[in-house]
Amino acid sequence: MLNSMDSKPILYSYFRSSCSWRVRIALALKGIAYDQVPVNLLKDGGQQFSAEFKALNPMQQVPALKIDGITLSQSLAIIHYLEETRPNPKLLPQGPKKRAQVRMISDHIVSGIQPLQNLSILQRMGEKKMEWAQQCITSGFQALEQILQHTAGRYCVGDEVSMADLCLVPQVFNAERYKVDLSPYPTITRINKALLELEAFKASHPSRQPDTPAELRA
Amino acid sequence: MQQVPALKIDGITLSQSLAIIHYLEETRPNPKLLPQGPKKRAQVRMISDHIVSGIQPLQNLSILQRMGEKKMEWAQQCITSGFQALEQILQHTAGRYCVGDEVSMADLCLVPQVFNAERYKVDLSPYPTITRINKALLELEAFKASHPSRQPDTPAELRA
């Protein structure tokens, strides 16, 4: 199906962008080699706003993935595309009900938590930034902990790594960054710990990227 | 999650609109709401995700309540910013509808967001593709029957 002469995919990413990290994990889990082009969201007023990057991705956000002759944005759209074109190992379970659980958890994080505490929103919050981020994450994690108690095995849904796990780990990283108390969320904490032992989650970690600043490097 | 929608179906309860829609697509596959090829499916999901993660959550009820007086201005900023990007994308992907000529999940996300834009008095003249597609979709029975003005809980003064 895939032409072995195709050039390597290119991922436009920022080391600490949780949306970019989800895609980095997917690429690592599926063993897809790629080149990374860092886009610094803070420097030069935000490199994502350059005319050059806008031509590549009109949404002016990371991640963007150039693959198979197209450019995709939106982390879950990218992950679904990888799943449909490079199906092994699977990131979605077989049955529709379990797939729905994976998507429900993923969507809760990517629509219900992360956008409310992303960079552009926090910049608008000024002084109240930390408090705002904590409120959004706490509120979201309270609901998520309930859901996971129902769906989780070793990982978010049963015992296989899924798209939901790719969304969870970067969000827990953000929670720690904004000093959210995680003690009310034992299931979230347990799953996050188990996932961080896996090579794909380690290799894709913000502390190990080409654009990780020296002081934050692992 | 203390949010709507929630769908009780086949012995389970699901939340998150796109998770629900994907479930319906996988269990009741006709007519299709996602095209066949992975690249077109990715375009449908990219547009859908842009709306449901990149625009709507920033202007939903709980956020607007926190904005107080600045509510209208905030909603307009979020929607305008999102629609500027969306108009660019749609110029590349759209046929009669968001992606080609068949109704897809992206169209299901577009119409409610345009409704919100109108509610918050966003000037839509910079977005001719969004406007054209929205108008074409609102001629379809499914979009009319499901409209906020025609629901069991629509207040009398807003009823069609």
TrEMBL record, chain A:
<comment type="pathway">
    <text>Amino-acid degradation; L-phenylalanine degradation; acetoacetate and fumarate from L-phenylalanine: step 5/6.</text>
</comment>
<protein>
    <recommendedName>
        <fullName>maleylacetoacetate isomerase</fullName>
        <ecNumber>5.2.1.2</ecNumber>
    </recommendedName>
</protein>
<dbReference type="Pfam" id="PF13409">
    <property type="entry name" value="GST_N_2"/>
</dbReference>
<dbReference type="InterPro" id="IPR034333">
    <property type="entry name" value="GST_Zeta_N"/>
</dbReference>
<dbReference type="InterPro" id="IPR040079">
    <property type="entry name" value="Glutathione_S-Trfase"/>
</dbReference>
<dbReference type="Pfam" id="PF14497">
    <property type="entry name" value="GST_C_3"/>
</dbReference>
<dbReference type="InterPro" id="IPR036282">
    <property type="entry name" value="Glutathione-S-Trfase_C_sf"/>
</dbReference>
<keyword id="KW-0828">Tyrosine catabolism</keyword>
<feature type="domain" description="GST N-terminal">
    <location>
        <begin position="7"/>
        <end position="90"/>
    </location>
</feature>
<comment type="similarity">
    <text>Belongs to the GST superfamily. Zeta family.</text>
</comment>
<dbReference type="InterPro" id="IPR034330">
    <property type="entry name" value="GST_Zeta_C"/>
</dbReference>
<dbReference type="InterPro" id="IPR004045">
    <property type="entry name" value="Glutathione_S-Trfase_N"/>
</dbReference>
<dbReference type="InterPro" id="IPR036249">
    <property type="entry name" value="Thioredoxin-like_sf"/>
</dbReference>
<dbReference type="InterPro" id="IPR004046">
    <property type="entry name" value="GST_C"/>
</dbReference>
<keyword id="KW-0413">Isomerase</keyword>
<keyword id="KW-0585">Phenylalanine catabolism</keyword>
<feature type="domain" description="GST C-terminal">
    <location>
        <begin position="95"/>
        <end position="214"/>
    </location>
</feature>
<dbReference type="InterPro" id="IPR010987">
    <property type="entry name" value="Glutathione-S-Trfase_C-like"/>
</dbReference>
<dbReference type="GO" id="GO:0016853">
    <property type="term" value="F:isomerase activity"/>
</dbReference>
<dbReference type="InterPro" id="IPR005955">
    <property type="entry name" value="GST_Zeta"/>
</dbReference>
Automatic annotation (TrEMBL), chain B:
<protein>
    <recommendedName>
        <fullName>maleylacetoacetate isomerase</fullName>
        <ecNumber>5.2.1.2</ecNumber>
    </recommendedName>
</protein>
<keyword id="KW-0828">Tyrosine catabolism</keyword>
<feature type="domain" description="GST N-terminal">
    <location>
        <begin position="1"/>
        <end position="32"/>
    </location>
</feature>
<dbReference type="InterPro" id="IPR004046">
    <property type="entry name" value="GST_C"/>
</dbReference>
<dbReference type="InterPro" id="IPR005955">
    <property type="entry name" value="GST_Zeta"/>
</dbReference>
<feature type="domain" description="GST C-terminal">
    <location>
        <begin position="37"/>
        <end position="156"/>
    </location>
</feature>
<keyword id="KW-0585">Phenylalanine catabolism</keyword>
<dbReference type="GO" id="GO:0016853">
    <property type="term" value="F:isomerase activity"/>
</dbReference>
<dbReference type="InterPro" id="IPR034330">
    <property type="entry name" value="GST_Zeta_C"/>
</dbReference>
<comment type="pathway">
    <text>Amino-acid degradation; L-phenylalanine degradation; acetoacetate and fumarate from L-phenylalanine: step 5/6.</text>
</comment>
<keyword id="KW-0413">Isomerase</keyword>
<dbReference type="InterPro" id="IPR010987">
    <property type="entry name" value="Glutathione-S-Trfase_C-like"/>
</dbReference>
<comment type="similarity">
    <text>Belongs to the GST superfamily. Zeta family.</text>
</comment>
<dbReference type="Pfam" id="PF14497">
    <property type="entry name" value="GST_C_3"/>
</dbReference>
<dbReference type="InterPro" id="IPR040079">
    <property type="entry name" value="Glutathione_S-Trfase"/>
</dbReference>
<dbReference type="InterPro" id="IPR036249">
    <property type="entry name" value="Thioredoxin-like_sf"/>
</dbReference>
<dbReference type="InterPro" id="IPR004045">
    <property type="entry name" value="Glutathione_S-Trfase_N"/>
</dbReference>
<dbReference type="InterPro" id="IPR036282">
    <property type="entry name" value="Glutathione-S-Trfase_C_sf"/>
</dbReference>
